[in-house]
């Protein structure tokens, strides 16, 4: 099996449909014909090609089933499909700051949506901030002063906040937080934790309500006009893992 040959076999829509159908359960030849709405000769040809690549096999019962290799190959396709469907976005943005292991999990982003517009993205983030109930982990390349009182108020109600900011904001953040803690002794200790990086390469957040991120353009400047967001479990786990990656590399204040 060569890679070009494998990719060629996976490029056929009928063959992909057969693989996905067998991923659910083994099927007889007749059921494959009926499910795919193709002729018997066409089904035989497609089955032979998939069998030749060891992606499916015929069992002793006469049913056709997907092989473990076939299942593994299919697992890579959602990420490729996501990038392909959003190729204009990825042509204009730099994915280098995303850890390789998370690039390999781009399929987890399949349920994401794209928010267009700087104001729209800001409104979305502020709405998430207002509705968060348990935790909010954010990573931003600048400090928005108007959000600080909202964060403090939500923290007083028990919401845990984690933030990653550029190193240039370290002194200002220390003074602001010291001021709030001095003025209000009821603020729970460590309810707000802040760390810094020399440069914040990706903007994003993950909360108990969902997640989202922004990527830089290919020239390195952050694109604040497009935000990728989602709230399904796979997307949120991907965002948490991205945040954890940078949180472990940031310096505490």
Keywords:
Endonuclease, Chain A, two-stranded antiparallel ribbon, elongated, 2 domains, 10 strands, alpha+beta, 253 residues, Arc Repressor Mutant, subunit A
Describe the overall structure.
The protein contains eleven helices and ten strands. By secondary structure, it is of the alpha+beta class. It has two domains: 3-75, Arc Repressor Mutant, subunit A, CATH 1.10.10.10; 86-252, Endonuclease Chain A (Endonuclease, Chain A), CATH 3.30.870. Strands 3-9-8-7-4-5-6-10 form an eight-stranded mixed sheet, with helices on both faces. The protein has a two-stranded antiparallel ribbon with strand order 1-2. Strand 5, helix 10 and strand 6 form a beta-alpha-beta unit. The protein is elongated. The termini are far apart.
Major sheet strand order: 3-9-8-7-4-5-6-10
For the sheet with most strands, the description reads: 8 strands, mixed
Radius of gyration: 24 Å
Annotation, overall tally of beta strands: 10
CATH architecture identity of the largest domain: 2-Layer Sandwich
What does the overall shape look like?
elongated
Distance between the termini: 53 Å
Mean pLDDT value: 91
Here the CATH topology of the largest domain equals Endonuclease, Chain A
Q: Which CATH top level class of the largest domain fits?
A: Alpha Beta
SSE sequence, one letter per element: HHHHEEHHHEHEHEHEEEEHE
Strand content: 15-25%
Stretches with pLDDT under 50, minimum 5 residues:
none
Percent of residues in helical segments? 40-55%
């Amino acid at each position: 099996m060569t890679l070009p040959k494998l990719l060629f076999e996976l490029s056929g829509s009928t063959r992909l449909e057969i693989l996905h159908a067998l991923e659910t359960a083994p099927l007889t030849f007749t059921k494959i014909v009926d499910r795919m709405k193709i002729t018997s000769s066409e089904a035989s040809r497609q089955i032979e090609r998939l069998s030749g690549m060891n992606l499916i096999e015929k069992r002793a019962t006469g049913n056709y089933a997907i092989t473990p290799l076939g299942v593994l190959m299919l697992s890579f396709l959602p990420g490729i499909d996501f990038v392909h469907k959003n190729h204009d976005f990825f042509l204009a943005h730099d994915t280098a700051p995303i850890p390789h292991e998370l690039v390999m999990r781009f399929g987890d982003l399949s349920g994401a949506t794209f928010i267009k517009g700087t104001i729209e993205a800001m409104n979305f983030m502020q709405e998430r901030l207002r509705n968060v109930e348990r935790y909010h982990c954010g990573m931003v390349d600048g400090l928005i002063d108007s959000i600080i009182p909202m964060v403090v108020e939500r923290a007083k109600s028990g919401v845990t906040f984690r933030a990653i900011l550029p190193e240039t904001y370290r002194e200002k953040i220390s003074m602001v937080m010291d001021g709030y803690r001095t003025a209000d002794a009821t603020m729970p200790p460590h309810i707000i934790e802040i760390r810094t990086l020399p440069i914040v390469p990706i903007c994003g957040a993950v909360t108990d309500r969902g997640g989202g991120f922004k990527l830089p353009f290919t020239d390195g400047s952050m694109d604040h006009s497009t935000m990728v967001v989602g709230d399904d479990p796979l997307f949120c786990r991907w965002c948490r893992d991205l945040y954890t990656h940078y949180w472990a590399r940031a310096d505490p204040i």
